[in-house]
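Meet the record:
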Amino acid sequence: MQTRRLGTTEVQITPILVGTWQAGKSMWVGIEDAETIKAIRAAYDAGMTTVDTAEVYGNGHSEQIVAQALSDVRDKVTYASKVFANHLKYDQVIQACEGSLKNLKTDYLDLYQIHWPSGAFNTEVVPIEETMSALNKLKEQGKIRAIGVSNFSRAQLEEASQYGRIDSLQPPYSLFWRQIEKEAQAYCVENNISILAYSSLAQGLLTGKFERGHKFEEGDNRAKNKLFQGENYERAQQALDKLRPIAERHQCSLAQLSLAWLIAQPQTNAITGVRNAEQATKNAVAADVELSGDELKEIDAIGQIVTAHLDENPVMWEW
């Protein structure tokens, strides 16, 4: 898989990244460590050498699983992790980074990101200048190679950028969830900031495997995802029906088609969660699906069957 440059850094990332929220097990059901380790390794074998994790995913469990899967090839992979909104004071950032380094069994992170803006989930508000000061210090020490932010608006991104170089933004972004296109994407293009899209398959909705009337098991976070509810869900099914013939033309799955569309957007790369080795291998193939300009426009219009009816709230879940 061809790599891309992360922002203005020397760090190389794959256009399709391995996402490991589910590896932490918290807020997911039916996750087995052994299967997850196999899936991450299969993704690596298929060319997906960039892995995204976070301290909050299972309270470090996800990071530990990543280490079990990839420690022996650490020099060939790119690690991205995140510090949560309750650890944004100077000393807390430093401590959180040390914890992530220990969990990942490495002495540096290629990318370290602020997971949510200060104040999210009723956390204490910490000035962005203080948080960025700690991140800049970690960068000077060589413990992190690049700084990123996640779930930031354009205004928050601009403010953070006053205190140091931001090389990535990690927003929710898929064919069915596109608030980033309104403001933040243009800023990322202007300032050479890589976009690392999470929920790039709309938490599995874009795979087409969920039929009308589907109900999630208790404890599955997707039960509270707005896209899986009411008229949004019905519109998504209508859009999927229109996408199927395009996927058939390319002899690819709906998931591969959706990822191919996403990584063709300006500055955009796709994070894909993997439960098993088969999923990981199939996701990687999306990098080889080539869409024409007309097809990109056609897919874009189909996605708007869903997105035209969503409100402005960038958070996908009704928590």
